[in-house]
Amino acid sequence: xxxxxxxxxxxxxxxxxxxxxxxxxxxxxxxxxxxxxxxxxxxxxxxxxxxxxxxxxxxxxxxxxxxxxxxxxxxxxxxxxxxxxxxxxxxxxxxxxxxxxxxxxxxxxxxxxxxxxxxxxxxxxxxxxxxxxxxxxxxxxxxxxxxxxxxxxxxxxxxxxxxxxxxxxxxxxxxxxxxxxxxxxxxxxxxxxxxxxxxxxxxxxxxxxxxxxxxxxxxx
Length: 220
Description:
Blueprint: H1 2-32, H2 34-53, H3 58-70, H4 80-84, H5 92-98, H6 101-111, H7 116-124, H8 145-159, H9 171-181, H10 188-201, H11 214-217
């Protein structure tokens, strides 16, 4: 009887351990760079909001939200010079290092055996519809849905918040940029959902609460 109970509960404990590991990775990113951590929280929230409008539920919605939270987790493997850089233009060497972060992140997630959907969102979130993205130059439907959602959320947050080398755009300007990217580098249907969501419910706060993502990311 005892053995049977252990066998039945093992998958539950395994899932719980993976979720715990994901939280640890997200927290570690926050220790590395406060902007990147707040950005990750906002992107996760936007991913969830787009996902809901796209009709995602259950594990699909949870995984795309986690994909948003962890999309930059590979930056844990980058050198400190990247985080201290204040220049808009990076050297070729530094650009190559930054563009490796999706691969680094996906490899980190592979080692904890998390959902392939989350890993794919992390690995492909910088791919672009027209094939101009990285790290593999995928195009169109080659890019998984989760990654396409993260791309829209990531781009919107990047242009609406201040960075050391770039001032945030006004909301009307940001929406115009997003519309220009629709169908070229970002999925037009997902951009449309993002625009509807922002117009209806507004933007995420610039500095989310420390535990803002916990209700969204609890294991189901």
